[in-house]
């Protein structure tokens, strides 16, 4: 399939490479940042870096809008596509309806459920692809493309996808932030963060094999108030972290089967 990509960030970078490796032809790359679009076009050669959102001359059968959520509306307002082209966004939180109004387009959603960084390779075959479309023909086309890059393809409507995105923020973004806090606390004590690695690995392994609430450990689930108070005292000079500790302790206790 002939594909144009709008965007040059982490999702565009990895998705574009996966689509090319699957045998699709990336015909055009647009980004308002000239060096970024030219770099991605080189990676996806023979793609052409273009300076306009007028995609009508590209011959694209699929146009992928891989931009931050806040930028989708402005892209939709300006983009022009070949008649009958499928136009998708890659957002977990934005509804299918946000793409309405693009002349001649068949709207859809093509959401890869993964965290991406340009510097780290990913196995796209293991990444869940969440699809949505207004009609069966468009959905069938998206399923064919998705199955060419992933073994995990699902049809999920906008409401359920938003709930999935919320869950993903807790599982990924908040977890990563908490790890960052733990690294800072070790740094303050001149200890290496690698000390936590076996603990992190075992925690994640257990959580993947069981319901996490059922394998919760630590002072909160034990209602060990003396230890909790000691920890809060250690965080006296970091009130933001102290508040996080408070909230998570109460949440653990509220969800504990042992309470």
TrEMBL record:
<dbReference type="Pfam" id="PF10728">
    <property type="entry name" value="DUF2520"/>
</dbReference>
<dbReference type="Pfam" id="PF10727">
    <property type="entry name" value="Rossmann-like"/>
</dbReference>
<feature type="domain" description="DUF2520">
    <location>
        <begin position="127"/>
        <end position="251"/>
    </location>
</feature>
<dbReference type="InterPro" id="IPR036291">
    <property type="entry name" value="NAD(P)-bd_dom_sf"/>
</dbReference>
<protein>
    <submittedName>
        <fullName>Putative short-subunit dehydrogenase-like oxidoreductase (DUF2520 family)</fullName>
    </submittedName>
</protein>
<dbReference type="InterPro" id="IPR037108">
    <property type="entry name" value="TM1727-like_C_sf"/>
</dbReference>
<dbReference type="InterPro" id="IPR018931">
    <property type="entry name" value="DUF2520"/>
</dbReference>
<dbReference type="InterPro" id="IPR019665">
    <property type="entry name" value="OxRdtase/DH_put_Rossmann_dom"/>
</dbReference>
<dbReference type="InterPro" id="IPR008927">
    <property type="entry name" value="6-PGluconate_DH-like_C_sf"/>
</dbReference>
<feature type="domain" description="Putative oxidoreductase/dehydrogenase Rossmann-like">
    <location>
        <begin position="2"/>
        <end position="102"/>
    </location>
</feature>
